[in-house]
Amino acid sequence: MTTVLISGLGLIGSSLARIMKKSDLQPTILGDDPNDDTSQFLLGQGIIDERVTLLKAASRADIIVLAGPVSVIIDQLARLANVTLKPGVLVTDVGSTKTQVMVASQPIQKQHVGFMGGHPMAGSHKTGGRAGREDLFDNATYFIVDGSQTTAQTAQFKACLKPAKLRWVNVSAKAHDGLVSEISHVPHVLAANLVNTADHQLKHDSVGLSAAAGGFKSTTRIAGSDPTMWTAIMLSNSEAISEQLTTYMDQLKQIQEAIEAHDTEKIYQFFAHAKTVRERLDQGEKKQ
Ligand SMILES: NC(=O)C1=CN([C@@H]2O[C@H](COP(=O)(O)OP(=O)(O)OC[C@H]3O[C@@H](n4cnc5c(N)ncnc54)[C@H](O)[C@@H]3O)[C@@H](O)[C@H]2O)C=CC1
Ligand SMILES: O=C(O)C(=O)Cc1ccc(O)cc1
Description:
By secondary structure, this protein is of the alpha/beta class. Helices cover 52% and strands 12% of the residues. The chain has helices at residues 11-22, 36-44, 54-57, 70-80, 99-104, 106-110, 151-160, 173-201, 214-219, 227-236, 238-260, 264-287, and strands spanning 3-7, 28-32, 50-51, 63-66, 90-93, 114-120, 141-145, 167-170. Strands 3-2-1-4-5-6-7-8 form an 8-stranded mixed β-sheet, with helices on one face. α1 links the parallel β1 (3-7) and β2 (28-32). The structure holds 1,4-dihydronicotinamide adenine dinucleotide (NAI) and 3-(4-hydroxy-phenyl)pyruvic acid.
């Protein structure tokens, strides 16, 4: 019987637990989270089998999944270097950034513990264990950054998540952080900025944001995400995010100039290119 310890039983940790419970391995799941409501709820639902604390229960686990905010994952990796783990244990994480996590995992890797960086590319703006779902990651990409894990450990982890039919993609930590900055971190900055700017500009307008149609709402859905989690991500991937924001501002300036100059062709091409790329994204989703 496989024992999995999940630390951080929020949206992602509890979704992983739900999926693992559906897998053929049917692991025993030990759950660690300071939130009493979340922990009691998941125990009551049979999604976790036992409430534990990470450092006390770490030695019982075959797989340890760190699923708290990135700053917490980094701190836990340092602490795990001071406890005795089961021989053959796999430690992995789900954090949205990978360079700092891989650096923080060095002490346990040096102790010959199998460590693998991980990041499921699915989720939502919702938080907490009650919001988790067993279909949250269905057909999604799951990034793996190789550390000291063995092939057998990777295979066992993948087997635990088999019901989600994930697309596993191996990537370096640097390439990962550059890519997710572009497709996830910068978009979250922009969504929050759209909301904050509109709120500021319209503060004396009696109708204001209440008139927003679906376009504003769908563009800014992710502005409803958890500020604690996103602060940790910004601090952990600041270089790539800052660099890409500079590019973004240059592009914005160009379209601003085209609009001011009434450059019909440039404005048309701007929207036509975006429409083609966006439609291709939907086609890809339909094929999966
Ligand atoms: N929300 C999303 O869509 C995605 C998030 N991620 C990453 O997954 C991780 C978790 O995110 P969510 O589940 O969305 O957040 P969440 O806010 O739903 O859950 C985080 C959980 O961690 C717990 N926690 C906080 N400090 C802790 C500690 N010291 N020890 C143990 N547990 C602790 C909280 O009580 C909470 O239950 C983050 O690192 C995030 O970057 C990755 C993919 C998607
Ligand atoms: O809500 C959404 O659509 C997201 O983009 C979820 C998300 C948040 C953080 C990640 O690291 C990956 C996915």
